[in-house]
C-alpha cells in the first residue's frame, strides 16, 4: 500500500491507524533524506504545483510546509490573506477556485474558521491539507508530535502522555488526543478548570487540575501555550499566577521521582507555561519536533499526491 485511505488530510479523526503508520514509514525515509550533508531533495513531486493558503499568521507551520514542498521538488505558491482579494469581500470558495484555475494541484490551508477545510473539500477536486482550522484540528502537528514521541520512546501503546495548558483554545490538543489514542497511548489533559472544556471527558481522556500529580503520572508532557489571541474574556487572574500554578520549571522536574520527555508545539512563552531551563534541557525534544515536522509534511504531501512504490533518489 502506497496511498492513504483519504483524498484530503482534514483531521486526525478521519484517518486510520494504517494511514498513520504509512505516514510514519515514509517520514522515516524523508528524515534520512533531510539528514544528508548534500542533495537534501528528491524529484518526487517535480511538476506538481502546491499553493499555501494562510488566512492566519504562521511561522513554523508555513515554513515547514514550504521546505517540505521544495525538498520534494514541487512548485510552490504562497498566498497571504492580508494582501489578497479576501480583504475586498471575495468569498473563500471564489478565492480558491480562482487559484485552482491557474492549474494548482494541491492546497495547504490554515483558516480561522473551524470546518473551512471540510466545506472546501465538498466543492473542489484537488487534495487539501489542513494546516490548522480555528480551535478545531491541526493534524500535521499531531502527526509530528506522535512521530517524535515514537522516535524517542518506541511504541506508544500503553504510554502515558499529558497535554498541559490551554486545552480549550488549542487545535493541537484535540488532534493529539485523537492521534495518541489511535496509537494506543493513555491521555490526561491538565490545566486550570476555566481552560479545560467540561465535555472533554467524553473523548475518554483523564482530566486533572494538579500539575505536579500529572507530571508524576506521565511518560511525556506536551506543554501548550496560553492562546491569548483566542480568548475573548480573562480565564485566569494573571500570567504570573498561571506560571506559578501551571508553569513547568526545573525545580518541579527535579522533584519528580523519574525523568519525563518534554514537548512543546511552539511558539513558546518562556517563563509562562515553561521555563527556559526546561525548554533547553536534555529532557526536551522541542527542536526534534521542528525537524520531524518537515519529514512528516513531506510524507503527507507525497502520499496525497498519489504515492509511488519507489522514491527516486
Give me the secondary-structure topology.
Layout: H1 17-34, E1 49-54, H2 60-71, E2 75-80, H3 92-100, E3 106-111, H4 116-121, E4 127-133, H5 139-153, E5 160-164, H6 171-182, E6 186-190, E7 206-208, H7 211-217, E8 220-223, H8 239-246, H9 250-255, E9 261-263, H10 276-279, H11 286-304
Helix-strand pattern:
HEHEHEHEHEHEEHEHHEHH
* Mean of pLDDT: 91
Termini Cα gap: 20 Å
CATH superfamily of the largest domain: Aspartate/ornithine carbamoyltransferase
Q: Output the structural class.
A: alpha/beta
State the major sheet: 5 strands, parallel
- Which bin fits the share of residues in helices? 25-40%
Number of helices: 11
> What is the CATH architecture descriptor of the largest domain?
3-Layer(aba) Sandwich
Task: Tell me about this structure.
With 313 residues, the chain is of the alpha/beta class. It has two domains: 12-138 and 292-304, Rossmann fold (3-Layer(aba) Sandwich); 139-290, 3-Layer(aba) Sandwich (Rossmann fold), CATH 3.40.50. The protein has eleven helices and nine strands. It has helices at 17-34, 60-71, 92-100, 116-121, 139-153, 171-182, 211-217, 239-246, 250-255, 276-279, 286-304, and strands at 49-54, 75-80, 106-111, 127-133, 160-164, 186-190, 206-208, 220-223, 261-263. It has a five-stranded parallel β-sheet, sandwiched between helices. Strand 1, helix 2 and strand 2 form a beta-alpha-beta unit. The radius of gyration is 19 Å and the shape is globular. The model is unreliable at 307-313 (pLDDT under 50).
Amino acid at each position: 500500500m502506497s496511498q492513504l485511505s483519504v483524498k484530503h488530510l482534514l483531521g486526525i479523526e478521519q484517518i486510520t491507524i494504517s494511514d498513520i503508520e504509512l505516514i510514519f514509514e515514509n517520514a522515516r525515509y524523508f528524515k534520512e533524506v533531510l539528514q544528508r550533508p548534500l542533495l537534501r531533495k528528491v524529484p518526487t513531486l517535480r511538476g506538481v504545483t502546491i499553493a499555501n493558503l494562510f488566512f492566519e499568521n504562521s511561522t513554523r507551520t508555513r515554513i515547514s510546509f514550504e521546505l517540505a514542498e521544495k525538498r520534494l521538488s514541487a512548485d510552490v505558491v504562497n498566498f497571504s490573506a492580508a494582501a489578497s482579494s479576501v480583504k475586498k469581500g471575495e468569498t473563500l470558495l471564489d478565492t480558491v477556485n480562482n487559484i485552482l484555475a491557474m492549474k494548482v494541484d494541491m492546497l495547504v490551508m490554515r483558516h480561522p474558521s473551524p470546518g473551512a477545510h471540510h466545506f472546501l473539500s465538498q466543492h473542489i477536486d484537488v487534495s487539501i491539507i489542513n494546516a490548522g482550522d480555528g480551535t478545531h484540528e491541526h493534524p500535521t502537528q499531531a502527526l509530528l508530535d506522535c512521530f517524535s514521541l515514537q522516535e524517542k520512546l518506541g511504541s506508544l501503546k500503553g504510554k502515558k502522555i499529558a497535554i498541559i495548558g490551554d486545552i480549550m483554545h488549542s487545535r493541537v490538543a484535540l488532534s493529539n488526543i485523537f492521534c495518541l489514542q489511535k496509537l494506543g497511548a493513555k491521555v490526561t489533559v491538565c490545566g486550570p478548570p476555566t481552560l479545560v472544556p467540561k465535555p472533554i471527558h467524553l473523548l475518554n481522556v483523564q482530566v486533572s487540575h494538579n500539575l505536579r500529580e500529572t507530571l508524576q503520572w506521565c511518560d511525556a508532557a506536551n506543554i501548550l501555550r496560553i492562546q491569548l489571541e483566542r480568548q475573548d474574556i480573562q480565564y485566569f487572574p494573571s500570567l504570573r499566577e498561571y506560571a506559578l500554578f501551571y508553569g513547568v520549571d526545573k525545580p518541579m522536574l527535579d522533584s519528580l521521582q523519574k525523568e519525563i520527555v518534554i514537548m512543546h508545539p511552539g511558539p513558546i512563552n518562556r517563563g509562562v507555561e515553561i521555563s527556559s531551563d526546561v525548554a533547553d534541557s536534555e529532557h526536551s525534544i522541542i527542536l526534534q519536533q521542528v525537524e520531524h515536522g518537515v519529514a512528516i509534511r513531506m510524507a503527507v504531501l507525497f502520499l496525497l499526491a498519489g504515492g509511488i512504490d519507489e522514491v527516486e533518489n
